[in-house]
Design goal:
about 140 residues; elongated; 5 helices; mainly alpha
Length: about 140
């Protein structure tokens, strides 16, 4: 077994050994995030996949300690970026809703947007389940 001189030496060695894994994980997560689309998933499932990527990226990025309110500005920029990512990956059936959300002032948070779209999805499901298809009956006479 190898013995190291100090805690700092242990930390430095571990950091050097595993920092490349962290970079690969960051790249992989970012790539997945940028290619993520709703497809046939529910709005909730799509949102939670996005949120998982955002949370993972947050753990992989170093914390920024700012003064003079810059940190708050950075958080607002991140929120705007998340909102745009969420809207970009939505299914094409949400084009009208996406346009309305982008025109709102002030711009809604990504969580508020998710809740609005989830309500929209529920209304669509309710509408589809209550409307009965119209069936045509054709009387074919035997010749």
């Amino acid at each position: 077994m190898n013995y190291l001189d100090s805690d700092f030496t242990v930390w430095s060695e571990l950091n050097e050994r595993f920092s490349t894994v962290r970079g690969h994980k960051y790249y992989k997560t970012q790539r997945h995030l940028f290619n993520l689309e709703q497809g046939s998933d529910s709005t909730e499932f799509y949102f939670h996949k996005l949120k998982g990527c955002w949370d993972e990226i947050k753990t992989l990025e170093p914390t920024i300690n700012c003064t003079y309110g810059a940190n708050k500005e950075w958080e607002l920029q991140l929120e705007k970026m998340k909102l745009i990512q969420f809207l970009m990956g939505l299914h094409s059936s949400y084009i009208a809703a996406r346009g309305q959300l982008l025109m709102m002032s002030p711009r809604p948070t990504v969580n508020h947007t998710f809740m609005l779209l989830k309500q929209e999805e529920r209304q669509r499901q309710f509408h589809n389940s209550t409307s009965s298809p119209i069936a045509m009956m054709v009387n074919v006479s035997k010749l």
